[in-house]
Amino acid sequence: MRRWNGWGDEAVALDLPPEGDDFLRQRIGQGTPLPDADLAAVCARVPASRLPADPAVDHLLDHTPETRIRHARGQSLPDWLAMRSGDMGPFPDGVAFPESSDEVTALLAYARRHGVHLIPYGGGTSVVGHINPPAGAQPVLTVALSRMNRLLDLDEESRLATFGAGTPGPLVESQLRARGYTLGHFPQSFELSTLGGWIASRSSGQQSLRYGRIEQLFAGGRLETFAGTLILPTVPASSAGPDVREMILGSEGRFGILTEASVRISQLPEHESFHVVFFPDWDRARAACRQLVQDRVALSMLRLSNARETETQLALAGHPGLIRLLERFLAVRGADQGKCLMTFGITGRRRQCRATLAQARAVCRSHDGVYTGTRLGRKWAEKRFTMPYLREALWQRGYAVDTLETATDWSNVDALLNRIEHNLSRQLSDDGEHTHVFTHLSHVYGQGCSIYTTYVFRVADSYERTLERWRRLKHTTSELIVRHGGTISHQHGVGKDHAPYLPIEKGPLAMAAIQALGRHFDPEALLNPGTLME
Amino acid sequence: MRRWNGWGDEAVALDLPPEGDDFLRQRIGQGTPLPDADLAAVCARVPASRLPADPAVDHLLDHTPETRIRHARGQSLPDWLAMRSGDMGPFPDGVAFPESSDEVTALLAYARRHGVHLIPYGGGTSVVGHINPPAGAQPVLTVALSRMNRLLDLDEESRLATFGAGTPGPLVESQLRARGYTLGHFPQSFELSTLGGWIASRSSGQQSLRYGRIEQLFAGGRLETFAGTLILPTVPASSAGPDVREMILGSEGRFGILTEASVRISQLPEHESFHVVFFPDWDRARAACRQLVQDRVALSMLRLSNARETETQLALAGHPGLIRLLERFLAVRGADQGKCLMTFGITGRRRQCRATLAQARAVCRSHDGVYTGTRLGRKWAEKRFTMPYLREALWQRGYAVDTLETATDWSNVDALLNRIEHNLSRQLSDDGEHTHVFTHLSHVYGQGCSIYTTYVFRVADSYERTLERWRRLKHTTSELIVRHGGTISHQHGVGKDHAPYLPIEKGPLAMAAIQALGRHFDPEALLNPGTLME
């Protein structure tokens, strides 16, 4: 059963090793957990639904309190605090579970007839408030696409697969694997997030270096809108005017409800392995990273932890004896204090993989990287989707954890990274609190890379004050990112939390262009209000 | 000096070898050339300019007849017929040569004050009527960006170069080469076409397999519009809402005038070579082509000629003795009648190139390809930008030549290719005329490829009847392309010639979305009327 107030499946728990506990205590002090609300109590607080009855759609709707609670919030830290405190803010007035594009069309017609807001809902994994209902007088209906989760068509020659937009990551991959294919889109939210959600929020997977971001994978599909049905035909490339796919990518449910999507798939690879290299310091590590991507070494993933993240990962890994051995091995080879951990993936035909590994190792060696083989890489691969479970373990010890991410050009990476870390580190010092901050580059491009920063701080003595701490951290850093050459999001999207910063990044004319599209597709502004644009 | 009525520099002429002459005579009969108009006579027919005088911009304008003639038409076959006949249709009332974004802004203000249409003009190489002035009562000012042709900024770490939008291909590359870099965008029009034109029309270069289409190269820039200045910031990737760059790409001068563009550059490669392989038949050749791209063999270009194009190329190559030797060599190895020529490019670090070549040869071998080394590839590379000159030689023999191109998914390639060739071949048979038709796949993707078809036919006994022949060929084939799963253009854009077919491809809702953007950026519809959207 999925947790109603946190990440993932209730049966799965990931604990901190004792060394991790000590590590955090030394960095930011002992935490004191806040009390969790229970589901029954929250159910009792759900108000009556305001949705007008309508025979055209009533059979699609669920108004039960638990269902409405389970679709009220995503996975941002404010969402987490809301769910844990039980003070959840607005609930949707109901949740619809359509099974076809026709049923989605019927829901749009219903919304227009009665002036109901619609919120398209995929896996509910947003960390920036995409699917949170607005407060206000108009009723809100969340449209959960979870029943539209099947492989609808497979064109093996063109390597195109068409899915219902509500298909979650594991069902995308299992339905393809049965036929010998993979999509290769593996965001950390993979376990729960859906194809439609990836498209609507411009998601990026951990192996985007090989498979591309969702922008490169999304070939076409079907969007039901208030202005009619938009069919995006699949062509491999086109110079026929502005690309309408690119208007839908990142539209975050403001223009319509995606019901089907065709995506570009690949044959299951013959070989896949993940390798770890340690560098003596950040400068050499970053230079190696940049060279690997600018030289087009055909890696499938590449991430680079800074020294603080490297230290944190090793502390939280458990197995202190083995880690000590590793660190001795590395120190002898020049990677001691300040060392940085790089993980890279190699995927594809065996012959190509051999050539790529040789190229990658040569580049790393030329920057004094110490290659350690695939053992740590295998660990990374095993845990790649389980990190969100760690939040639960930290929460129960009285720690809040959140991430911030952006992307910027290589010439700005260090300056922006340092600003972000510095700002987060000192932001709670007026409260006498430390924030533990560490960063990795998670996606690399010839032009630049993403910067993915994690910050851990102690919860305050109340939910309100904890939320206030988060607001300060989030707001000041978001403002800083868009004022200093970063995008407000490389992979999480805009939602409601980032909406205030989007106009700073894009400028008024670009925002007005997006608004013009919004008026075109949704003239009465019924879809997902407050998301993407305030 | 640039030809006023054809392609390229007057000093350059490419002649047909005698064998090419024979080949065409056998296929479609002896041609009878039409008489060319001369420039002085056309100058005498240019009407007075209707542009209102205005001290704010008068110093930027040129109203002389020759300048107006030289900016009146592009390089489509109708353009060619218009220039050759001297019956040129509407001329711009003047041509402006701004040198800065501020001057472009002044021109926009002028256009609004006086109700003047503006046509942004890059290299004038459009083959679909992008820059042709409309007929009508409003004066038309063509804005030539040729003086905005400098490298403005180079960020070596981020591999970003910023150019004036009017920079033509050779000046893009020479300014970068001096610093050790390349953009790697080489459309056939490279000699004359400009960076701004590539962006506005979603161009694709011959080595897009390595460097990407212009969509992947365009990182940001500056667009002057009637609604204000749009600055597109450079970030390597973003999930911050719909991508506004992708609205400008392919906007064909309807939304604003691009004045600066930042593009993603690469280090000059250590190695580059082009290789030719012959396959016994189309099926095996196409299968090899598809496998090379779906297996992600890191080629920099890949094109595949069908049997008729292979035969034509060999006939037009000259050196009949050598060609006979080659054909004997190939026949012994199984590539005889029906053989298909594949050219692939390998570019990059030496070590990577060696690995890639081995991979590519192994794939070709497994499909019975006969590898012939780099000699023919070198020939291709030498002639890669000179093919348009051949049009002049054919014209002087009484032949008209044009191309049609599209892209489609692999599962549809053969069906669409056959339809296109069949339709073109039989279209003039009512006139008792043959059309010589041949095709190559010029750009390949995992999902599909482009189809690039050349057709040669005899000019009729008048310009009007020649144009009518072309119209029949073009219209029926364009209709067929968009009705059968192709895009109306993979690399030439929409312009005016393709505008009637765009709504069939995109559908009414997508067209209305693009129109909504047009109204936003250009509420009085002063920019490039009739292009992109009728």
From TrEMBL, chains A, B:
InterPro entries according to UniProt: Alkyl-DHAP_Synthase (IPR025650), FAD-bd_oxidored_4_C (IPR004113), FAD-bd_PCMH (IPR016166), FAD-bd_PCMH-like_sf (IPR036318), FAD-bd_PCMH_sub1 (IPR016167), FAD-bd_PCMH_sub2 (IPR016169), FAD-linked_Oxase-like_C (IPR016164), Oxid_FAD_bind_N (IPR006094)
Cofactor: FAD
Binding site for substrate: 391
Keyword annotations from UniProtKB, A to Z: FAD, Flavoprotein
GO molecular function annotations of the record: alkylglycerone-phosphate synthase activity; FAD binding
Active site: 452 (proton donor/acceptor)
Alphabetical GO biological process terms: lipid biosynthetic process
Name this protein carries in UniProt: FAD-binding oxidoreductase
Site feature (Important for enzyme activity) residues: 303
Cited SUPFAM superfamilies: FAD-binding/transporter-associated domain-like (SSF56176), FAD-linked oxidases, C-terminal domain (SSF55103)
Pfam family, one: FAD-oxidase_C
Domain FAD-binding PCMH-type as annotated: residue spans: 88-268
Highest taxon listed in the record's lineage: Bacteria
Family stated for the protein in its record: Belongs to the FAD-binding oxidoreductase/transferase type 4 family.
Binding positions for FAD per the UniProt entry: 120-126
N-terminal signal peptide: none
